[in-house]
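User: Sequence recovery, please. Input:
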């Protein structure tokens, strides 16, 4: 999960929306979701649309509680300092694309 910024300040002010990826260290579903996210963003060349944060839930349970993450993997979109969208345990690239559609080019 090294391509993602580690989440220390996921609510910091930013012109861009923030995509927060809550994952488990040894969770196969989390690895698949990471690949699907990359696929969705590369398909439309949207790599710079979001500020990305990866949150390993075991290391940051405080952030999981704050964002009400009950299961992993979970994607949360923060825009204008508010949670605007959430997706729990996506089962492919299509649900991720639908989640992110309002922000994609």
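Assistant: Recovered sequence (105 residues):
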């Amino acid at each position: 999960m090294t391509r993602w910024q580690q989440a220390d300040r996921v609510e910091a002010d930013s012109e861009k929306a923030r995509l927060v990826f809550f994952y488990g260290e040894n969770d196969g579903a989390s690895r698949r979701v990471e690949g699907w996210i990359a696929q969705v963003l590369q398909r439309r060349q949207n790599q710079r649309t979001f500020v990305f944060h990866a949150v390993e839930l075991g290391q940051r349970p405080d952030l999981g509680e704050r964002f009400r993450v009950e299961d992993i993997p979970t994607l949360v979109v923060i825009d204008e300092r508010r949670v605007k969208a959430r997706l729990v345990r996506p089962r492919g690239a299509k649900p991720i694309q639908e989640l992110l559609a309002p922000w994609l080019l």
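Residues 5-100 form a domain with the Glutaredoxin fold (CATH 3.40.30.10).
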